[in-house]
Every structure is written in structure tokens, then in C-alpha cells.
Amino acid sequence: MKVRDLPGANFRIATTYNSPYDRAKWTHDGERTRRRVRRWRQEKEWYDGRVEAFALSRSYLELEREEDSMWECTDILGRGAFGMVGKWTKFDKTGRVLDDVAIKQSDLDDRELDEEGRPTVPTEAVLVKALMNQGCRNVAKLREMRFFDGDRPKWRLYLEYYRYGTLHDLIQKYRARNKRNRQEDRIPEAFVWQAFHDFAQACYHMKVLRLDSIGVRSPRGDHFALHLDLKAENVLLGDAPANQKSIPYPTVKVADWGMAEYTSLDDSRNSKRWKKYGTIVWMPPEQRDFGRYGERWHHPVLGGANHPYSMKHVVWQIGANIYGLMNLDIYNEDINEVINNAEGMENTLRKHGYSALMGYRSRFYSSELTSLVEDCLRIDPSRRPNPYELVGRTQDGLARYTEKYHQTGDHPKLKL
């Protein structure tokens, strides 16, 4: 199967002509099925017949049907415009858990059709595979993928399951605990720095990404990957790093690359075709109002409506995620309001180096951390750190916590 916008690239893809909604063998147990469906209906307000058909279907992960029957959907993890995600668990005959996987099912996207209207491999899968092969440990791992070639074609991506949930879940837990106990407990700075450094390493790999490792000739020029929807709900928390150099906190895993693109500053599609991609409150200034943010300023700094997005787009969204961790802001509401208000404050912004936060400080976190977050969130992209600087500054910020951990074996606890 071809890859969109990458001439000459072809992948061998597992293809199924059956319906993805063939019922799983475990659903023959009526009581177990009713019990799970009842729980999902109570827990998921968006649960409906379509979600149920997905949850009760077989995994299609194993070639042998008998082997595949060992997989059962044990949870529904999410539903959105992209499709649905569920957790499938593999049990042996005694009921012992052998494996877990997250299955993401989505309809064939019109963006993933070639010039002749034929399906191509999702850009999401291509970029994730390339990042994995390049050694990026901060991307949600893709295990397999399958195309369902029917009247309504669909994709299933089989992803590593991460038991600690998302950054969004972590923030919600702290908020709920604070409200319940009437306290102001915050996420430890040591974890915030480690998450920041994880993000920075993902950003670096996106900047230098080449596709040769997956058998695709990389286009000429300085190409890079843009995520375009890097928000707390799309950032998973995996197991702690295996090496003893790192503090044993969960590792940041950037997920949901469904909006992602592989591009360059000379790409005619960048940013004309992507202005609507992503979630509005998480968009950096250069993407807001269809690229018209600040266009009436006396000294416009964002380059105009069709100015291409650079890696500074990613840096801004990383800064927004870290600000959310520090302030327990779930939906980027604080930064969204600040950026909206800042558009009418050009002169003040210029005096403060185009910082919307204007001297950000916190009574919970160090000035080194708040200063770096402020720099990432500057309205003028040219004043934000580049991926190399971000790696260096987060490494320096994390160093004093890792040194203390090596000396004492102790670290502030993260309440998961």
C-alpha cells in the first residue's frame, strides 16, 4: 500500500475483508457480556450502540481465530472525532492475564486517499514507526495495524497499553484530591522536569526525523514532524525508565498522531491545509484565527496567514502541557484566555519580549522552571527555544533532582 505524499513508498499491510464487528467468542457468555456492558454504560456518558459493537468485537490481532479468541475487550478508553480506543486483554485458559493492547479503530480518512482515490497507509502509523525505529522512547508504541476493506473501510492500530492513563487523568486526580481534602497539593517539580525533558526528547526526534529506517526515501530538504494536536489528553504515562539514572517516574509517551504531518518550511501545504487541525484552545498564536492572529499589529511577528509552521509550534504546545501540570489546568483554559487577551496588547507585549505571561512566577515551583515555560509560550515563535535548546535546558533543570536521587535513593512521590 502506498504512503500519501511520499512517492515510491510502499508497505505490506494486513488486510481483512470481514466486518471489524464480528462478535468475539467471549460474548457467548451472556452474563459476563451483560456485566461489562452495564459497567460501560454507567461509566461512559458517550457510550452508544457503535461503541458497544466495537467493544464486543474480536481483536483481529492474531492470525489464528482460536488464538484471537483469547483476547477480550476489558475497557473502553476513549471516543472522539478520530474514532474509538479500547483496551483488549489476553487471557489464558485459567484466566491469567498474558498481555494487554490498546486498539484504535477509525474510519478511512479522505486525507489518506491517493490521487486515484485508493487508500494509503495512515501518516500517523508511518511517523510513529519511523520515530520508534529512530530510537525515540517518548512515543506511544505501535505494535501492528490492519486495514478492513469493506463498504465502509476502517483501520485498526494496535498500540502499547499504558496503565497510568494520560496527563489529563493525572491532573484530574490531583484536582479531585485537593477539592476533597481542601488542600493545595501540587505535582512534584522533579516529575514536572522529567516530563518536560521527555517532551523535549520527543521534540528533538521530531525535528531530525528521517524515514529511511522504515524503507522510505526521505524527501530532500529539512523535513520534520508536526503533531498539531499535542494536548494533555493525547499524552500517555508509561512505565518508569528501566535504567537507574532516571528517577522512577512514569515516562511521557506522545500519542494520537492522527493529525500529524511530515513537512518542511518550503512545503506548499504548510500551513495552508492545516489551519483547522487540532483543538482550538491548544493552538499556538500562529495557528489561531486561521493564521490571522496579530495581523493588525504595527509590527506583525507571526508572518501572516499562510506562514509555515515550524518546530516552534511543537515547543509552544509542550509549554502549554507543562503549564497545565504546574497549575492543574485541565483544558488549557488559563493559557487560552491569556493568549486571547494578549492580542490587544501589542505595545505591552513588545516591552516584555512578546511574553504573554510577562514574568511568570509560582509559589510552588522554581524560577528556572517558570522561566523556561514562559519562553516556550512566547507569542513570537522566533523567541521560543528550539528543540536543541529545549533538550539542554530541561536536562539542566532535571539534573539537581537526579543527583539527589542518586545520592539518597529518595524522590518526591507522584500520586497516581
TrEMBL record:
SMART domains: S_TKc. It comes from the Eukaryota. The keyword ATP-binding applies. GO terms for molecular function: ATP binding; protein serine/threonine kinase activity. Residues 71-414 form the Protein kinase domain. Its EC number is 2.7.11.1. Keywords: ATP-binding, Kinase, Nucleotide-binding, Transferase. The keyword Transferase applies. PROSITE patterns: PROTEIN_KINASE_DOM. This is non-specific serine/threonine protein kinase. It comes from Fonsecaea nubica.
